[in-house]
Amino acid sequence: MADGNIYMKNNHFYAMLSRMKFINRWGLMRNTKNENICEHSLEVAFIAHALGIINNQEFNGNINAERLAILGMYHDVTEIVTGDMPTPVKYYNPIIRNAYKEVENVAKDALLSGLPEKMRKEYDSVLMESAAEEDLWKYVKAADKISALVKCIEEKRMGNTDFEKAEISILKVIENMDMPEVKYFMENFIPAYKLTLDESN
């Protein structure tokens, strides 16, 4: 029984996942409503899944949309350990970016240590971007930016001007991605985010 208790104490992976709701994003910005990484990750999963479906149905692609949803769900999990680092800080220069990547790797290993050994390989490839799935991660990154744009739209609708410049810079990044699936989503689905509930109905 004692050995079993020690083993159970080490199985902290899913308990750590439940703490995603305590990690807020946009730490340098004045928010009318805080957004945590749990909320953000679900939205990224929705959008990444949609981009995969759009690719397959509108552009004759062959993408595993369900895998995109899984990658989206887990794409920010290491922030349970690292916290959310504001984008202007994270990308300030290559030295900071490379150092943060190392910290992310340490965080990933710490989280994986909370799983039984034989389960770890199933999660290793979803906690951080991998070269083997580089093509899929491109869609997750696009979904991440679209989710950030949605946050800007929501804050602006509440009269918060702090997000105006963020919206401009995020839109530029999205446009520079030059992905037809992203353009399709932007043209067909983003306008609805600017409507009230009554207008949507």
TrEMBL record:
Domain HD/PDEase: 33-158
InterPro entries: HD/PDEase_dom, YfbR/HDDC2
Record key words, sorted: Hydrolase
Pfam families: YfbR-like (PF12917)
Top-level taxon: Bacteria
GO CC aspect terms: cytoplasm
Keyword Repeat: no
UniProt keyword annotation of Hydrolase present: yes
UniProt-listed SUPFAM superfamilies: HD-domain/PDEase-like
GO molecular function, one term: 5'-deoxynucleotidase activity
Name the UniProt record assigns to this protein: 5'-deoxynucleotidase
Organism ancestry: Bacteria, Bacillati, Bacillota, Clostridia, Lachnospirales
